[in-house]
Structures are given as structure tokens and as C-alpha cells.
């Protein structure tokens, strides 16, 4: 394992006030979002959409790394330049989603386990050779009356740790994403309790599997009230509870924490990140940034609507949302 190279890549991904762009929607997820926005669900429209993103002027000022889906790594812009080359030319480090999705866990109703470990060492060799420097694996944890179970959390943590160790062997920085879903009517206290348990177990297992903490990035959920909870915690409370939870669970050796947005509105996600920075400036041991998909892309995708004549304005909307999150990382955003 080249520890120095891993550490340097992780630090570059966390540099300045930049963040990551998760543009790694699987075919099924991308098609679902296209259907909602009235966009044809074909390989060519997915290619056009990814071209819109990677050719957005000055995106590299705001985004340090972009997470791709396998299909996108093999695609090119209309002028024949590969998307990977376009990202690198724009100063953005290309990464790859490696998990193969969350499936029902047998004997654990309502709980999911992420698949994709078989053959991962070989896949990693190919991706590393193609220039992909970092990766992502998403585990999904669901809150309901009697779940999550510890058995489910341990199974997902084990897969995350196996994936992370394989990435580091290949010289690829792993983003470890244990997402506690915001679906449900639970309180923010319950989200705190579950997120804390999940992060404790994830780091216990990462350490047991000898994952090099200085060469990884954590991608957690924020601590929030459930989407359908009657009482919704305010921005300050979300910032306080999220930072408290992370300080209790994430070793200071980890160079960076990059949040998923998880279905929050673009404004809420940015406001929460900004409040964490304005309230806890210089009090956090790791870089704290964004790795949003929906909260950066949604306004641009909806405006684009699959029409070539809308590309330029959609790119401006994408740039705007990305730069708003840079301001949030400086603690300077208010909706
Ligand atoms: P959202 O920001 O839309 O939650 O997506 C982030 C992500 O990469 C989920 O795996």
C-alpha cells in the first residue's frame, strides 16, 4: 500500500473550500430522476447529461473530485474527448462508484445489505489503470420501529471495510458511505442514536480490517429529523447534533468528512453545512465538506429537461449550486 499517495489524494479531494460531486447515479436511479423530469431514459440522454456536467465552465473552481458510474467512465463528449480526460483537464479528480447496490438482507425484513465485493480486486485494477483515483461504496441503513439491527449494521460495516482495504491495496482512496436514510417519522434524537451506533461500528470494523484511516474519506448523513416527522429540527440544531455525533465517532486521523444530501432540499443541505462551519470554525479535526448529488444537480437537471438549447443556462445553475456549497464550507451561506 502506498500510504503517502493515498494521503495526498485524500488531502487534494478535501482542499480549500471545494467539495465532491456525486454524479454516479446508476442507470436505474438516473432513469428514475429523468422520468420525474420528463427526460427520455436512454443511454444517449444519460451521455448528454453527463456531458453537460463535465463541460460546465469553471466547475473545477468549486469541485475537487467527481464520482462516476461505470457507464460514464467509458463515454465521451460530442467532440470525442473522454469524460475522464475532460474532468482531469478541468482540474477535477475522477472517481468511481464500486458498489453494486443495496439488496434486501435475507432474514432481516426492511433492512438492506450492499453487494459488489466479488471480483472487486480485478475491477479495481482496471479502474486504477483508467485513471480513477478514488472510489465510493454506499451502505444503506433504515430507521423504523425495531431496526436497524446490529447484525445489519455489522454486515454493512464489514462490506465497507473489505471494499476500503481493497481500494487502498490498489492505490485508490475509498469513500466510506454508511447512509442512515432520512425516510420515516422518527425524531432527530433517534437519528442521532442510530448514526452514532453506525459510525462506531463502521470505525471498529475499518480498524479491525486494517484500513489506513489517513487515506480514506467518510461520507455520512447529517443528523436530521425524519422526512415525515411532525417536528422538524431547525438549522442550528441539525448543525449541533451532526457535529456532536461526528466528534464522538470519527477519528481525527481521517482527513475528511463529505456529506451526502440524502433528499434534503438544495437550500437545506447548504444551510446545514454552512451552520456547522460558522458555529464550529477551527474546532473540527477533519475537513468538512459536501459530496452531494441531488443538492447540486437537481435544479440544473430540471432546467435542462433534455433540451440542447437549455444546456448553457443549466450549466450556470450547476455552477451556482456548487459555488454556494463552497460558501457554505466557509460558513457564509444563508438561504
Ligand atoms: P445525494 O446527495 O443525492 O444523497 O447523493 C449522494 C450520494 O452519492 C448517494 O450515494
Automatic annotation (TrEMBL):
<comment type="pathway">
    <text>Carbohydrate degradation; glycolysis; D-glyceraldehyde 3-phosphate and glycerone phosphate from D-glucose: step 4/4.</text>
</comment>
<dbReference type="InterPro" id="IPR029768">
    <property type="entry name" value="Aldolase_I_AS"/>
</dbReference>
<dbReference type="InterPro" id="IPR000741">
    <property type="entry name" value="FBA_I"/>
</dbReference>
<dbReference type="GO" id="GO:0004332">
    <property type="term" value="F:fructose-bisphosphate aldolase activity"/>
</dbReference>
<comment type="similarity">
    <text>Belongs to the class I fructose-bisphosphate aldolase family.</text>
</comment>
<keyword id="KW-0324">Glycolysis</keyword>
<protein>
    <recommendedName>
        <fullName>Fructose-bisphosphate aldolase</fullName>
        <ecNumber>4.1.2.13</ecNumber>
    </recommendedName>
</protein>
<dbReference type="GO" id="GO:0006096">
    <property type="term" value="P:glycolytic process"/>
</dbReference>
<dbReference type="Pfam" id="PF00274">
    <property type="entry name" value="Glycolytic"/>
</dbReference>
<keyword id="KW-0456">Lyase</keyword>
<dbReference type="InterPro" id="IPR013785">
    <property type="entry name" value="Aldolase_TIM"/>
</dbReference>
